[in-house]
Amino acid sequence: MTKNIFNLDILYNIILIIKRGDKVNNIVRLKEITIQNFKNVKMGQINFINKRKNYRASVLGLYGQNGSGKTALIDAIQLLKYALCGNQIPSYMADYINVDEEYAKLKYVFNIKSFDEEYEAFYEFNIRKEESFEHQNIVVNNTNKIPKLVIFNEVLSYSFQSNSENKRKETLINTNTEKIFVPDLKYECLIGKNSAKNMELLVAKNIIMNSSRSFIFSIEFLNVIRQRLDSNKNNTEFIRHLKLLESLVNYGNFELFIINTSNTGIISMNALPLTFKYEKNNSGAVGQTMISLENPTVIPKETVDIIKNVISNMNIVLKQIVPGLTISLKELGNQLLENGEVGELIQLMSNKNSKDIPLKYESEGIKKIISILQLLIVIYNKQSITVAIDEIDSGIFEYLLGEILRIISEKGKGQLIFTSHNLRPLETIDKGFIAFTTTNPSKRYIRLANIKDNNNLRDFYFRDIVLGEQNEPIYETTNNYEISLAFREAGDMIGS
After folding, report:
1. Which of 110, 227, 383, 394 has the fewest CB atoms found within 10 Å of its own CB?
2. To the nearest whole number, what is the mean pLDDT of the chain?
3. What is the arithmetic mean of pLDDT over 112-132?
4. What pairs with residue 66 in β-bridges?
């Protein structure tokens, strides 16, 4: 599936080359997430289905005051991507477990469609923080102690229906056992009876757990199952199980994207984090790359054409969003990469009014639009794509943001999950696409009740902040007099 990966940076400069034959042609959607003891969310459940009206696109905009669990949702989706890709989860995520709890629990529900078949898949796991020691044969004052995150009690279940068969929800893999996994009948189906792989997988399970990875979606476990495909081509149950696993693996690697607030920070430092999925004819590419805007950047030769194609694709929409603006890639000649291979020295340029200037001189809002635009194009056109963006409004003119979200929600095909402080989208997209955080950590996410079709959701939200008409409070009230007094007291401390 993975054809080419360059650079060792896990967040950026990772490109996967797609060939048509590599793809699993199923449509996967996130349907629901349940979060427990994760960051400031004691318990939160959010469903991504618009129950008010049926749209092709799945959009969820999450609103609420600072520190109320919006970013926790995006981080939970980021954690899912690490798991589905079989990647090691960064150690900093161990600190996301609620400080009052020993572990956090996350559960994800997916809808998967394949021709005349449909699955509802349930993937859940717990995470806990452990402290380990760096590889050193002595311990000095605990200075070489490092935290790590451990995934445990993974469970994958699903229900199934087709034109000829319906299956109720059943557990496929449950790792909460001293065995490799249960149920035993599913183990025999996927791995085989008395398999010589038993001891190998048992050792692998322990190693994978200690390396902060998912066991179910690890390359070691999946390859054991994949190797049995030829001998099980006529085994309907085996094929169905494998199709489910491969659909989720494909989704995690090629169709699930997370844009967090670090992107905005990188842009402010004059670099462009470009995330994209591009396909044409029988091939394409998906990934992330970071291009310096301060100075020309050296990139691998094979990446130049990919970025050119992505830019050409974006320019079709960019010149409509920002009238007359396009961007281009200026090639400045060959230069050696750190690994000794020949790369291309390039610079991103802004083209407007027949003048070319380096892109670094454009506003941060334009840079932000450019960094996510190709993914918005994919959401508009592709059903099996999920993009989660934290603080989508950062730096973008509110009227333009509202119009872009309205177009995607009404005419798009994919799935967009975003957080925002800008309230303009409350007036432009369907009310069923909006959810809110509460001040109750044990029930963090709600949909507003008693909203009528003729209500302005923005006004309704403001009114509820003041009057508190929902079952759960959505704003922790502040006192203007106390705030003013606090400013005055702080001023007395520093002098007039």
Report:
1. 227
2. 86
3. 91
4. none
How far apart (Å, rounded) are the C-alpha atoms in residues 195 and 97?
A: 37
Instruction: Copy the structure tokens of residue 283.
Output: 């091939």
Helix, coil or strand: residue 153 = strand
Which residue bears the tokens 């083209």? 351
Dihedral angle computed from the Cα positions of residues 219, 225, 226 and 229, in that order, rounded to the nearest 10 degrees: 180
Q: What is the dihedral of CA 479, 485, 489, 494, to 10 degrees?
A: 90
| Rounded CA separation 57/409 (Å) | 6
Residues in the chain: 496
Q: Is the pLDDT of residue 4 over 70?
A: no
CA distance 74 to 96: 12
Q: Which amino acid is at 333?
A: G
**3-state class of 374 per DSSP?**
helix
Closest by Cα among 293, 299, 289, 288 to 345: 299
Most distant CA atoms of the chain, gap in Å: 83
Contact 15, 306 (CB under 8 A): yes
- Sign of the Cα torsion 459, 462, 463, 469 reads positive
